[in-house]
Specification:
290 residues, 9-stranded mixed sheet
Length: 290
């Protein structure tokens, strides 16, 4: 069901091993995840075009209190790429639920950033008996998404989704362009480390990955539609936003209205990739109540 593997990533986290969850159904792929630490389970969910190592600086701050499971979402990071697979929100959510249920995790804390925040909230709605709390960082559940960050990002995303030229653009990803697009999600641009950029570029050259990238960007409407599931989440929720996140005040207010009992924190001087810029903030939230 689950097996330890050699770490395929160029980034290692002390005390953490790389594992795979084998598929049970046709059309599913192997899911790779990192595991380490001690205590109640904490599942970390990354965002578009990233992977489990996105939380490399958060993990050391919480691993003394939690057994951490950092998942590579389907087709992303070093999880298996399955030709013709869907990357719509319900399919991605099913993968998160599979990790939790097949490993029989209970009393789970879910932390997701961006797309991962949406999946954390919808998974909590589906697994109320297993999920203890949710920390949702900068939910990616509004029209535009990364295209709001800069003219360059808008051009890239529009081009990747375009018929004909889209697959070609998705497979190019020159290093300077990739760096510039990712820095559009940061206030402190030094938080994007060269080794992490190298890892993302390496993953982007996996056979079939450009198809995954296009499909994930095209799945944005399903993330917006998934907001209707938020109200069904009975676990305590903390909405955490970077002051300069791509979401607008109206987007944040809409989620506060959907989740009126949720705690809400806006972190000054941070952008969309808060786990890179200020991992101490979500770590403090997680460690306060464990």
């Amino acid at each position: 069901m689950s097996a330890t593997i050699d770490n395929p990533s160029g980034i290692s986290i002390a005390g953490f091993g790389s594992h795979v969850l084998e598929p049970r159904e046709p059309g599913q792929g192997r899911l790779r995840y990192l595991k380490g630490g001690t205590g109640a389970p904490l599942v970390l969910l990354h965002t578009v075009r990233t992977q489990a190592e996105h939380f490399r600086h958060l993990i050391p701050l919480v691993q003394q209190r939690y057994t951490v499971y950092a998942l590579d979402l389907p087709g992303m990071g070093h999880s298996e790429i399955v030709p013709g697979a869907s990357y719509q929100e319900p399919v991605m959510r099913a993968a998160v639920k599979s990790l939790i249920t097949r490993l029989d995790l209970r009393d789970v804390s879910l932390l997701g950033e961006s797309m991962g925040a949406v999946l954390a909230l919808t998974t909590a709605a589906d697994l109320p008996e297993r999920v203890r709390r949710v920390v949702a960082i900068n939910p990616y559940d509004y029209a535009g998404g990364i295209a709001r960050s800069s003219v360059l990002a808008r051009f890239i995303v529009t081009g990747v989704l375009a018929p004909g030229i889209g697959p070609l653009l998705a497979g190019l990803e020159p290093r300077p362009i990739m760096r510039a697009v990712l820095k559009g999600g940061l206030v402190d641009t030094t938080a994007l480390r060269d080794d992490y950029l190298d890892e993302l570029l390496k993953v982007g050259h996996r056979p079939g990955y450009p198809i995954v990238a296009r499909a994930v960007y095209a799945s944005l409407p399903s993330l917006i539609a998934a907001r209707s599931r938020y109200r069904a989440a009975s676990a305590p929720v903390h909405l955490l936003y970077g002051e300069k996140d791509w979401s607008r005040a109206s987007d944040r207010q809409a989620n506060k209205q959907l989740l009126p009992s949720a705690e809400f924190t806006e972190v000054p001087g941070t952008g969309h990739f808060l786990a890179l810029e200020r991992p101490d903030v979500p770590a403090r939230l997680l460690n306060q109540v464990a």
